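hey so i finally got around to running the thing on that chain from the lab meeting. sorry it took forever, my laptop kept dying and i had to restart like 3 times. anyway pasting the input first so we r on the same page abt which one it is
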Amino acid sequence: MLSTALAYAQTPSSTLLKPAAVFDGQELHAGWVVLVTGDKIAAAGPAAEVAAPSDAHALDLPGKTLLPGLIEGHAHVSSRLQRSNLERSGHE
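ok and heres what got predicted. didnt touch it at all, straight out
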């Protein structure tokens, strides 16, 4: 009985996110869902192809667009490299 309780306590919960669209970094996909299990994205894709556990909590997000994972789209890597090169050459 204790092992059953421990197994249940260690099973991460799942949430099925149901937005209007999912952006995968390249394309916007209407009708896609995102399955999150514990703190990780377990699956993303067309709703008919993502199998969620029967006990998953479904969260409708009408009118919303999800960007699964972290997409850092504001870094200025080239600016940092330019500044570094300028500093090394003495042209700040």
